[in-house]
Amino acid sequence: MSDIETNNETKNEGQAPKPKDRTTLIILSSVLIVIVVVVGILLWKTNILKSGPKPLALISGSGPAIIIGNETISKGELNKQLNLQVALLKQFYASQGKPFDPYSKENAQIIDQIKQNVIQGLITLKLLDDYAKQNSITVSDKEVDDTLNQLETRFGKDKFESIINESGLTTNEIKKQLKEQLIAKDIYTNLEKGVKVSDTEAKTFYEQHKAQFNVPEEVNARHILVKTKPEAEQIEKELKAGKSFTMLAMEKSIDKASGEKGGELGFFTADQMVPAFSNAAFALKKPGQISPIVHTQYGYHIIQLIAKRPAQVRTFEEVKPQLEQMLAQQDAKESFEKLIDGLKAKTKIDVKVQ
To answer: Which pTM was predicted?
Structure first.
């Protein structure tokens, strides 16, 4: 999602606004959101130095923290999970220019929520792991190793290792948790595959929620983004002299993502960009028309209209594949939650920490 969009996104100078994904996303039950190292890296892309702080002890003492049936999760194991959460949260706050102290009174509620999420997540993954064993659902060591290697490649071995050091997790512990995550994903995927959505179900949902398929006016535009007004004024002169907008975008825009495509952003609605940018883009009337210089917090833009698309209601046939997928995911999510609730009801669970 672009930094020029109106939602509260982290600023990353030099990137272009992009259209929001309109496909409805169905997220697994919140109890599955256990931030193991893999999920943590993907969410925050943190950059913790190897020489960073030692693992914390948010849960004091030793001994069992959670007993699930005949298995025990120790306070030490739980602390490692909490350490990872805190490390990632500190990095997120740092990206906003703010410190985060896990021991401060003002952050006590956040830490408590992290504890509860991690505890419930660990319980859920353990129950699903046992369910998988009983139902011959397996994940190979190769799948785990391949996923781990992909992460190391994507984020760099040094960065990956620094996160491990910060959390106190061992490689074997990471592999074990990654395997449990992949197993949980497979269980959910199997449930989703078993769901069949009829045309009648999809059509009924469409008719009952037709307003959700209203698409406001959209524009497709190119832009050139530079840091200073004099730079923008020079580009403006070159455009008036007949130089190609797309060539200038490729040569001079600091938004490299769109610059590689001649500045093209794709279709977007007015509320997907910061107001100054949207106002200028939607004020353009004819394809090829170029805006005056527009100043936003990201720099100075010059915008060229490519096309306009009027407000419309998407037809059932257009949205049918998305609807079928969404309804299947909803059914699978409900079945998944019922499965977890059933496993919890059949298992003695003793949480010994608060």
So the answer is: 0.59
